[in-house]
Amino acid sequence: MSKFPATGDALPDIALETPDGGTVKPSDFKGKKLVLFFYPKDDTPGCTTENKDFSALAGDFAKAGVALLGVSKDPPAKHAKFIAKHGLAAPLASDALEGGLSDALGIWTEKSMYGKTYMGMVRTTYLVGTDGKIARVWDKVKVMGHAEEVLAAAKAL
Q1: Which of 14, 47, 57, 150 is catalytic?
Q2: Cα(124)–Cα(105) distance, integer angstroms
Protein backbone atom coordinates (compact mmCIF):
# COMPACT_ATOMS: atom_id res chain seq x y z
CA MET A 1 0.00 0.00 0.00
CA SER A 2 1.30 3.44 -0.96
CA LYS A 3 1.99 5.97 1.76
CA PHE A 4 0.92 8.73 -0.63
CA PRO A 5 -2.69 9.93 -0.90
CA ALA A 6 -4.77 8.32 -3.64
CA THR A 7 -8.32 8.48 -4.97
CA GLY A 8 -10.76 8.72 -2.06
CA ASP A 9 -8.18 10.16 0.34
CA ALA A 10 -8.22 13.73 1.63
CA LEU A 11 -5.69 16.01 0.00
CA PRO A 12 -2.93 17.01 2.47
CA ASP A 13 -3.65 20.56 3.68
CA ILE A 14 -0.22 22.09 3.09
CA ALA A 15 0.12 25.81 2.31
CA LEU A 16 1.53 27.05 -0.99
CA GLU A 17 2.89 30.53 -1.73
CA THR A 18 1.02 32.76 -4.19
CA PRO A 19 2.70 35.28 -6.53
CA ASP A 20 1.14 38.17 -4.56
CA GLY A 21 2.95 37.14 -1.36
CA GLY A 22 0.04 35.30 0.24
CA THR A 23 -0.62 31.63 0.79
CA VAL A 24 -3.27 29.19 -0.36
CA LYS A 25 -4.01 25.66 0.80
CA PRO A 26 -6.41 22.95 -0.33
CA SER A 27 -8.84 23.57 2.55
CA ASP A 28 -9.40 27.11 1.19
CA PHE A 29 -11.43 25.43 -1.59
CA LYS A 30 -13.67 23.32 0.70
CA GLY A 31 -17.16 23.13 -0.75
CA LYS A 32 -15.84 23.73 -4.26
CA LYS A 33 -14.37 21.33 -6.80
CA LEU A 34 -10.64 21.90 -7.34
CA VAL A 35 -8.26 21.00 -10.14
CA LEU A 36 -4.71 21.06 -8.86
CA PHE A 37 -2.24 20.63 -11.70
CA PHE A 38 1.43 20.14 -10.89
CA TYR A 39 3.99 20.85 -13.59
CA PRO A 40 7.82 20.84 -13.67
CA LYS A 41 8.92 24.38 -14.54
CA ASP A 42 7.66 27.80 -15.66
CA ASP A 43 8.51 28.89 -19.21
CA THR A 44 9.43 25.48 -20.59
CA PRO A 45 7.56 24.35 -23.72
CA GLY A 46 5.28 21.65 -22.26
CA CYS A 47 4.57 23.58 -19.08
CA THR A 48 3.78 26.77 -20.99
CA THR A 49 1.38 24.87 -23.26
CA GLU A 50 -0.30 23.18 -20.28
CA ASN A 51 -0.76 26.50 -18.45
CA LYS A 52 -2.11 28.19 -21.60
CA ASP A 53 -4.53 25.30 -22.16
CA PHE A 54 -5.91 25.49 -18.61
CA SER A 55 -6.04 29.30 -18.87
CA ALA A 56 -7.98 29.12 -22.14
CA LEU A 57 -10.59 26.98 -20.37
CA ALA A 58 -10.56 28.95 -17.08
CA GLY A 59 -13.99 30.47 -17.83
CA ASP A 60 -15.46 27.02 -18.52
CA PHE A 61 -14.01 25.64 -15.28
CA ALA A 62 -15.44 28.65 -13.38
CA LYS A 63 -18.90 28.15 -14.98
CA ALA A 64 -18.75 24.51 -13.85
CA GLY A 65 -17.95 25.63 -10.28
CA VAL A 66 -14.39 24.32 -10.44
CA ALA A 67 -11.37 26.19 -9.05
CA LEU A 68 -8.02 25.86 -10.84
CA LEU A 69 -4.56 26.01 -9.33
CA GLY A 70 -1.28 25.31 -11.11
CA VAL A 71 1.69 24.37 -8.92
CA SER A 72 5.44 24.07 -9.45
CA LYS A 73 8.55 24.54 -7.34
CA ASP A 74 9.31 27.86 -9.07
CA PRO A 75 9.41 30.84 -6.68
CA PRO A 76 6.41 33.21 -6.51
CA ALA A 77 8.26 36.03 -8.33
CA LYS A 78 8.96 33.70 -11.27
CA HIS A 79 5.28 32.71 -11.35
CA ALA A 80 4.31 36.40 -11.51
CA LYS A 81 6.58 36.92 -14.55
CA PHE A 82 5.28 33.72 -16.19
CA ILE A 83 1.65 34.82 -15.71
CA ALA A 84 2.37 38.31 -17.12
CA LYS A 85 4.43 37.03 -20.07
CA HIS A 86 1.76 34.57 -21.25
CA GLY A 87 -1.43 36.27 -19.98
CA LEU A 88 -2.33 33.23 -17.91
CA ALA A 89 -5.80 33.09 -16.33
CA ALA A 90 -5.26 29.96 -14.24
CA PRO A 91 -3.85 30.95 -10.83
CA LEU A 92 -0.42 29.60 -9.87
CA ALA A 93 1.20 28.77 -6.55
CA SER A 94 4.70 27.85 -5.47
CA ASP A 95 5.54 24.67 -3.61
CA ALA A 96 9.15 25.68 -3.05
CA LEU A 97 9.63 24.41 0.48
CA GLU A 98 11.03 20.97 1.18
CA GLY A 99 8.35 18.80 2.72
CA GLY A 100 5.71 20.67 0.72
CA LEU A 101 2.56 19.42 -0.93
CA SER A 102 4.31 17.79 -3.90
CA ASP A 103 6.55 15.88 -1.46
CA ALA A 104 3.49 14.74 0.53
CA LEU A 105 1.86 13.57 -2.71
CA GLY A 106 5.00 11.72 -3.83
CA ILE A 107 5.30 13.62 -7.12
CA TRP A 108 8.54 15.48 -6.31
CA THR A 109 10.88 12.64 -7.08
CA GLU A 110 14.20 11.56 -8.52
CA LYS A 111 14.26 11.71 -12.30
CA SER A 112 16.95 10.94 -14.79
CA MET A 113 17.90 12.42 -18.16
CA TYR A 114 20.98 11.76 -20.26
CA GLY A 115 22.43 9.63 -17.47
CA LYS A 116 22.13 12.38 -14.84
CA THR A 117 19.76 12.11 -11.90
CA TYR A 118 18.01 15.11 -10.40
CA MET A 119 14.92 15.95 -8.37
CA GLY A 120 11.92 16.97 -10.42
CA MET A 121 8.16 17.27 -10.52
CA VAL A 122 6.14 14.50 -12.13
CA ARG A 123 3.45 16.23 -14.21
CA THR A 124 0.32 15.21 -12.28
CA THR A 125 -3.24 16.55 -11.99
CA TYR A 126 -5.65 16.02 -9.10
CA LEU A 127 -9.40 16.53 -9.29
CA VAL A 128 -10.68 17.15 -5.77
CA GLY A 129 -14.37 16.95 -4.88
CA THR A 130 -16.33 19.42 -2.78
CA ASP A 131 -15.60 17.19 0.23
CA GLY A 132 -11.82 17.79 -0.10
CA LYS A 133 -11.19 14.20 -1.21
CA ILE A 134 -9.27 13.20 -4.31
CA ALA A 135 -11.79 12.14 -6.95
CA ARG A 136 -9.34 11.42 -9.78
CA VAL A 137 -5.59 11.46 -10.44
CA TRP A 138 -3.84 11.83 -13.77
CA ASP A 139 -0.17 10.92 -13.43
CA LYS A 140 2.64 11.32 -15.96
CA VAL A 141 0.33 13.65 -17.88
CA LYS A 142 0.65 14.14 -21.63
CA VAL A 143 -0.17 17.82 -22.27
CA MET A 144 -2.11 17.60 -25.54
CA GLY A 145 -5.85 17.50 -24.81
CA HIS A 146 -5.29 17.17 -21.05
CA ALA A 147 -7.07 20.37 -19.94
CA GLU A 148 -10.16 19.41 -21.98
CA GLU A 149 -10.18 15.90 -20.49
CA VAL A 150 -9.91 17.31 -16.95
CA LEU A 151 -12.74 19.78 -17.64
CA ALA A 152 -15.00 16.96 -18.83
CA ALA A 153 -14.21 14.88 -15.72
CA ALA A 154 -14.77 17.90 -13.44
CA LYS A 155 -18.15 18.60 -15.01
CA ALA A 156 -19.13 14.93 -14.56
CA LEU A 157 -18.15 14.91 -10.86
Answers
A1: 47
A2: 10
- The answer to whether residues 57 and 147 touch, using CB atoms and an 8 Å cutoff, is yes
pTM score of the predicted model: 0.94
Q: Clarify whether 47 is annotated catalytic.
A: yes
Q: Could you report the per-residue pLDDT of 97-140, keeping only the tens digit for each?
A: 778 999 999 999 999 889 999 999 999 999 999 999 999 999 99
Q: What gap in Å lies between CA 74 and CA 94, rounded to an integer?
A: 6
Contacts 24+ apart (CB under 8 A), 149-152: 150/35, 150/37, 150/54, 150/125, 151/57, 151/60, 151/61, 151/64, 151/66
Q: Which domains does the chain have, with CATH numbers?
A: 16-156 (3.40.30.10)
Task: Indicate the residue type of 120.
Answer: G
